[in-house]
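Researcher: Here's a chain I'd like modeled. Treat it as a single chain, no partners, no ligands.
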Amino acid sequence: MNISGNQRRVYLLALALMVIAVALACTWSLWLSPADKAASPAATPRPDGGGEPSAAPQETPRPMDAQSGATVGEADAGAEASKVSTIVYYQDNYGYLVPVMCNVPMEDGIAKATLKLMVQSVGNDMQAARLGLRTVLPENTKIDLDISGGLARIDLSREVLDMADAAAESNMISAIVQTLTEFESVDRVEFLIDGQKRDTLTHGTSVSGQFTRGDINLESAEPTLSLAASEPVTLYFPADSGAVIVPVTRMVHSTPDINTAVLELAKGPGNGDMLESVVPAGCGLIDVKVEDGVAKLNFTGEFVNLVQNSDGGRMALKALVLTCTQFEGIKSVEIYVDGQRYDAGQGELGVPSFMNVADSIVYDYIQTQSAMLFDFE
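Model: Modeled as a single isolated chain. Structure tokens:
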């Protein structure tokens, strides 16, 4: 990448500001640490915030089941004991919902605490900005939550009636439903607004009935494709910031299997200005084979141009692995270029614990920006 003197100065300024933000966040975390350590690590918090803490495993967020035995060094074990992993749904600058795994202080009512992180405020907005993302609930929104029998009843204060448009309303509702259904104790969500049932929000977004976990960031493979005659397949693309992975649900005519998913992934995102392509321009997919739980993907020679990405292709490879390993029985991925095994190097083809982990996003962003800044070719 060629970078002019002005661009270099802008990148240096952005990098310096990011480092300052990280330092402030770390200082803030250390300042709060006594309060954090006061939380008891012995009990699992209830997601609804009511009653005594429960030890039932279904009360923990779904991702925690996959993350038990977290990669924490012995020196950090004491500090991390009072933390719990939870999935927060933010949005990027283009309105795509982005799930992020965050470590938060453990408390009774972790589901409600998770939703509060999605409300606009100085602290929440700063945390979201560090990830290159934005919060989805309006400022000063108050949340009441009750979970019983798989149903989460959420009461939002009247601030949610002042959203900018229907798209903002829809993103907010989808983000809330996706967040709550990350918990095994929730499979349905019901909304109240300011204590009352409503059919719609101000701009027409439905809040009536019960909501179940749905397709995220829905798009169609063809503009004229009927949703009734199509099937959903989930694809993963790097955001244009290069910091996070965005899940996209694409409606297709074909059977939604690994072959279809990789083929659709190779076609690129529906809007290339908003998300990054996973494979380089001009690269084609030759075939996909699955042997003993290994997905073997064979691309044309242009695939080797992936290393020209600012991060060496790391995020693209991560998106490719996530797209493949979502299918049952797929445990790992191998890549071939014109039939020859491709050496990804440094374990980029390893299966990530989660698509976006907050603690690593800032570090990855700084690394990417540094690589761009000092590429003087």
